[in-house]
């Protein structure tokens, strides 16, 4: 290849200069554009296995600060594999030498990383659902944004980046999930294009490859296991289209997605747009009306009536999946979205379906049914039926038989050590490095890139990186880092990256160098962009998932409860489903209906299956017939179930999954995970015939033993006659919690102070089980602390705990100042709580046990923790992470880091001793803490306790909209009328009690969902909680009922119009007469069958418009 041009030389020199900066600024010419890049690694090239802990270091990769001269760069080829890679690629390169092990990182080592597939970034809203609603309504009302709502189909995330880019599930590729996804996508093309399908498939794949694009879809199929309802057909719905390019991924707007999909005849989702206050408030009201009873037909009908724009999906949910609708996704989008959507709908009408009547060959279900030997046989059969455009080779499925389990850390380490060839690579390095430094719960899984087998050599390596975030706390913590560093790229869901590690002496590639020049554009477009379409970041990312009870009762209550029912029995199952309903805020009426149904289900399925638990992947084979029969028993049951029947049998064609995969196709750990089985939340009081267990989700040094001693010796105990006992964990031989269970059985009405730390959910489940078996309540006492992003206990609280432990002498548990590894033990307990912040920690305890007592620890007006105390604790946490990653729970006095632990333990003692005056001064006096805890426990025992709010929004099932009137004013009016008119006084005599009962719910009905429809009720949402004036003009009555005629006034100049022909306030009905019959009073007056009294002048009152 020719020598690089002058501009190329300049670009290379820019990279070399930038390598010196650790996340520094890259200055290009005079434009001062900041392009963060990572430095190269020093020539030592130590592997992760040989890392040495260093104090004050968060990371585990050392970096060189010396300048690096780069004269050449290796080939970064954009060409893919030839036609059929099973013939054209030399896969022996993967096993023909220890290329990775022998690949050393030095000044001539570069890396090139490109995102290959990704879904939307996951943003965790820190606001409550109600706060998000309020903000959404506010933004739309001010004309700053539009609310976009789409259906949520029940399936799995599937991403496709072209025949060379690959097919991906949420956190994996090359498995049955992606094979099924590619087949179904190809099938969609055949249905849409008919005889032109092969030609269009080739064009489509070339288009994706040429433009580096990825499409994301919801893959809905009956062959991959049950969700809420078995789909009638196998299909995909496009949910995102992404241009990957050479910079940050660009996601299409919904109007652009519809335009793209209509061009290629791909299935689209049903979408609604709400751009006014009236429509957006009506939407949320409509959901509240339907949240416990909604099915696809009723939901779509209601939203069609209240939305400004409704774009039906090309796949009708009712026809392809069924009536059971998982939910809706609501998000804030640009205020221009409605106009853009109108333009797209005008210029791009729905495409025809040319293959609807053609023979498209065996269906997915037929193929799976014909190949039942094993997963590989089934995948080969599926892939061979797809065709050359979508599946020119099966390398991603069969080219690399094993995951590079031992190479993951080495690949990532060398990726971070190498010099980035372009801006995008530097940003991806920055992201990975930050996630590792902050110890986010994520895995970086590396695989051979089989499509590049022919390009592999000892100094030119190709890998696929899967970034797998294990839980939502990782996204939340990363989002917080983005607020501090806005230039960070987002953390995406479904995140796959192609990595090329190479030496500069492999040649020169102008395209790779040219990408450096584009860094200016990338940086200027991405740096400092704090939102989209004029919205602030927090507003631009506002999103809510709204799920329906008819779906949740199947998936959460029946499917997810199977293991609890069959392992722990009906009582534990009842506890589980009651807690779920409590968390959701299910209305009392629906809770009663569900309890009856679920109890019958538990009896039915245990009688039928004995001890053989049905598989969760085919649970509907048992549940659907039961639900169908239950629904037939009454109209109320039919509404509860939503829809049942027409069961699709899957046993003959269910895909074979030989490994343990989740519903998205991700590999699961072998060890089983038992779902939580908590006590129903929020007890109003602790009954005297019940026992009480007081326990401590704490850390050594939290003063639980001292507190138990004080509580045990308190005069008068808990102000009742129940005996108080305690059992100190350090004095118990054998397992502690079974001993507590024995004591509970001996003294079931006693109060037990469980003097042992209860740090995790396994212990909490044992306590819940004791509560069920021995008729007891449990109260957790936790040390009050602000916590951190990932731990309910802050560093200053941890410092106090350790300080207290190091002051102990002759401790029964031998954890005191004489303990050589006391600091390590405290860190071990501290990490048992890792993964939950304080809010999550407290909310879970409240939801499980219904109460929470906080024991004060630190003074509010304290000064910040000294820097040297903070540093020594952070150093210990780093050392603990290194130790636990290598040795697990091995004692700190043993293993690779024994010397470092000895040094740190001494430094810890010296530091805390030097700050003893500070650590003593910041603590709340123990006597004060004991008094506060004692009083809270007394309130709980007396039933006066009100638990802290866990901020769960409760909507319930809305039936009607009405104006709630003050009962006292209406009652006063009746007294005035009785005093003035003897006939009225005579009529009211003897009816006072029933009238008083009616007046407690005094209202003017505006619309009822049974009589007027969901949209009619929802239309009042914009005036929710506003005061509405009412004029009462007539009293109409007979011997069966009585009501007041009401004239409804206006709000902000808009008259509130009742959907009732005769707006009124029902005052009284005789026994056996329903309130609804009061609507007939005007007609009865015309027929001369009732009495009427005109109120002159009319009486004016007002009340808030509410939903009931």
TrEMBL record:
<dbReference type="InterPro" id="IPR038837">
    <property type="entry name" value="tRNA_ligase_1"/>
</dbReference>
<feature type="region of interest" description="Disordered">
    <location>
        <begin position="61"/>
        <end position="82"/>
    </location>
</feature>
<dbReference type="GO" id="GO:0005524">
    <property type="term" value="F:ATP binding"/>
</dbReference>
<protein>
    <recommendedName>
        <fullName>tRNA ligase phosphodiesterase domain-containing protein</fullName>
    </recommendedName>
</protein>
<dbReference type="GO" id="GO:0006388">
    <property type="term" value="P:tRNA splicing, via endonucleolytic cleavage and ligation"/>
</dbReference>
<feature type="domain" description="tRNA ligase phosphodiesterase">
    <location>
        <begin position="934"/>
        <end position="1088"/>
    </location>
</feature>
<dbReference type="GO" id="GO:0003972">
    <property type="term" value="F:RNA ligase (ATP) activity"/>
</dbReference>
<dbReference type="InterPro" id="IPR015965">
    <property type="entry name" value="tRNA_lig_PDEase"/>
</dbReference>
<dbReference type="Pfam" id="PF08302">
    <property type="entry name" value="tRNA_lig_CPD"/>
</dbReference>
């Amino acid at each position: 290849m020719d020598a690089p041009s002058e501009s190329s030389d300049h670009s290379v020199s820019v990279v070399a200069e930038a390598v010196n900066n650790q996340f520094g600024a890259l200055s290009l010419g005079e434009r001062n554009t900041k392009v963060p890049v990572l430095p190269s690694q020093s020539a030592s090239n130590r592997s992760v296995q040989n890392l040495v802990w260093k104090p004050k270091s968060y990371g585990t990769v050392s970096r060189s600060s010396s300048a690096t001269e780069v004269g050449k760069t290796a080939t970064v080829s954009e060409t893919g594999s030839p036609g059929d890679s099973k013939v054209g690629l030399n896969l022996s390169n993967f096993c023909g030498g220890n290329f990775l092990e022998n690949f050393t990182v030095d000044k001539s080592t570069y890396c090139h990383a490109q995102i290959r597939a990704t879904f939307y970034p996951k943003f965790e809203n820190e606001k409550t659902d109600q706060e998000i609603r309020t903000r959404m309504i506010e933004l739309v009302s001010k004309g700053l944004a539009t609310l976009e709502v789409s259906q949520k189909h029940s399936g799995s995330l599937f991403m496709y980046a072209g025949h060379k880019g690959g097919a991906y599930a949420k956190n994996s590729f090359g498995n049955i999930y992606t094979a099924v996804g590619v087949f179904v996508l190809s099938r969609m093309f055949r249905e849409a294009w008919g005889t032109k399908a092969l030609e269009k498939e080739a064009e489509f794949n070339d288009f994706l490859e040429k433009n580096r694009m990825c499409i994301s879809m919801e893959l809905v199929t009956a062959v991959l296991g049950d969700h809420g309802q078995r789909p009638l057909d196998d299909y995909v719905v496009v949910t995102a289209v992404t241009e990957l390019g050479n910079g940050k991924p660009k996601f299409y707007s919904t109007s652009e997605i519809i335009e793209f999909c209509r061009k290629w005849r791909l299935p689209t989702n049903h979408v609604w747009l709400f751009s006014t206050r009236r429509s957006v408030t009506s939407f949320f009201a409509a959901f509240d009306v339907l949240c416990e009873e909604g099915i696809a037909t009723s939901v779509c009908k209601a939203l069609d009536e209240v939305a400004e724009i409704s774009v039906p999906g090309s796949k009708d949910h009712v026809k392809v999946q069924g009536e059971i609708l998982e939910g809706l996704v609501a998000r804030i989008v640009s205020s221009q979205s409605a106009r853009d959507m109108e333009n797209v709908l005008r210029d791009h009408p729905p495409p025809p379906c040319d293959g609807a009547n053609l023979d498209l060959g065996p269906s997915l279900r037929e193929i799976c049914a014909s190949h039942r030997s094993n997963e590989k046989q089934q995948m080969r059969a599926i892939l061979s039926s797809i065709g050359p455009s979508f599946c020119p080779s099966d390398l991603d499925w069969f080219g690399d038989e094993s995951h590079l389990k031992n190479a993951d850390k080495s690949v990532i380490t060398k990726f971070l050590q190498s010099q980035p060839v372009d801006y995008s690579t530097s940003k991806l390095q920055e992201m990975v490095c930050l996630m590792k430094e902050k110890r986010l719960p994520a895995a970086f899984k590396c695989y051979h890139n089989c499509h590049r087998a022919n390009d592999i050599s000892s100094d030119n390596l190709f890998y696929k990186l899967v970034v797998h975030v294990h839980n939502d706390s990782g996204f939340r913590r990363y989002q917080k880092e983005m607020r501090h560093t806005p230039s960070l790229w987002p953390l995406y869901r479904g995140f796959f990256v192609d990595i090329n590690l190479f030496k500069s002496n492999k040649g020169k590639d102008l395209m790779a160098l040219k990408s450096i020049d584009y860094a200016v554009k990338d940086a200027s477009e991405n740096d400092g962009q704090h939102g989209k379409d004029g919205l602030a970041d927090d507003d631009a990312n506002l999103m809510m998932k709204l799920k329906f009870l008819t779906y949740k009762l199947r998936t959460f209550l029946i499917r997810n409860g199977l293991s609890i029912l069959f392992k722990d029995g009906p009582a534990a199952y009842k506890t589980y489903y009651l807690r779920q309903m409590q968390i959701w805020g299910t209305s009392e009426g629906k809770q009663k209906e569900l309890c009856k149904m679920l109890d019958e289900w538990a009896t039915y399925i245990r009688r039928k299956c004995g001890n053989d638990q049905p598989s969760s992947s085919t649970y509907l084979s048992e549940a659907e017939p039961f639900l169908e029969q239950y629904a037939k028993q009454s109209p109320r049951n039919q509404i509860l179930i939503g829809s049942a029947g027409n069961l699709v049998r899957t046993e003959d064609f269910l895909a074979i999954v030989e490994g343990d995969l989740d519903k998205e196709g991700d590999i699961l750990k072998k060890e089983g995970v038992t779902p939580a089985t908590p006590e129903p939340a929020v007890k109003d009081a602790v009954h005297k015939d019940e026992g009480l267990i007081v326990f401590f989700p704490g850390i050594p040094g939290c003063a639980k033993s001292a507190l138990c001693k004080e509580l045990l010796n308190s005069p008068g105990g808990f102000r009742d006659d129940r005996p108080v006992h305690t059992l100190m964990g350090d004095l118990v031989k054998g397992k502690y919690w079974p001993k507590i269970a024995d004591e509970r059985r001996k003294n079931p009405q006693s109060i037990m102070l469980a003097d042992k730390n209860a740090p995790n959910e396994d212990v909490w489940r044992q306590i819940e089980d004791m509560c069920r078996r021995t008729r007891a309540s449990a109260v957790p006492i936790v040390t009050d602390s602000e916590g951190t992003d990932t731990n309910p206990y802050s560093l200053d609280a941890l410092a106090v705990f350790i300080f207290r432990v190091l002051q102990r002498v002759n401790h029964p548990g031998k954890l005191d100042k004489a303990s050589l590894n006391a600091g390590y033990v405290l860190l071990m307990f501290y990490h048992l709580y890792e993964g939950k912040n304080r809010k999550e920690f407290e909310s879970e305890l409240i939801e499980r046990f219904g109460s929470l007592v906080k024991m004060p620890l630190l003074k509010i007006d304290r000064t910040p923790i000294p820097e040297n105390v903070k540093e020594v604790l952070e150093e210990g946490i780093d050392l603990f992470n290194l130790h636990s990653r290598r040795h697990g729970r091995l004692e700190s006095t043993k293993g690779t880091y024994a010397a470092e632990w000895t040094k740190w333990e001494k430094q810890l003692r010296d530091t805390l001793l030097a700050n003893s005056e500070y650590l003593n001064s910041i603590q709340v006096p123990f006597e004060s803490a004991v008094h506060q805890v004692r009083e809270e426990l007394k309130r709980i025992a007396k039933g006066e306790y009100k638990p802290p709010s866990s901020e769960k929004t409760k909507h319930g099932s809305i039936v009607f909209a009405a104006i709630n009137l003050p009962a006292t004013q209406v009652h006063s009016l009746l007294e005035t009328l009785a005093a003035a008119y003897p006939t009225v006084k005579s009529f009211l005599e003897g009816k006072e009690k029933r009238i008083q009962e009616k007046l407690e719910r005094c209202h003017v009905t505006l619309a009822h969902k049974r009589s007027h429809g969901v949209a009619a009720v929802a239309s009042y949402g914009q005036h929710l909680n506003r005061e509405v004036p009412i004029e009462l003009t007539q009293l109409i009555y007979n011997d069966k009922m009585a009501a007041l005629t009401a004239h409804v006034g206006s709000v902000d100049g808009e008259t509130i119009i009742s959907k009732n022909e005769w707006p009124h306030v029902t005052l009284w009905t005789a026994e056996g007469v329903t309130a609804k019959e009061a609507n007939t009073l005007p007609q009865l007056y015309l027929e001369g069958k009732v009495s009427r009294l005109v109120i002159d002048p009319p009486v004016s009152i007002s009340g808030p418009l509410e939903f009931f």
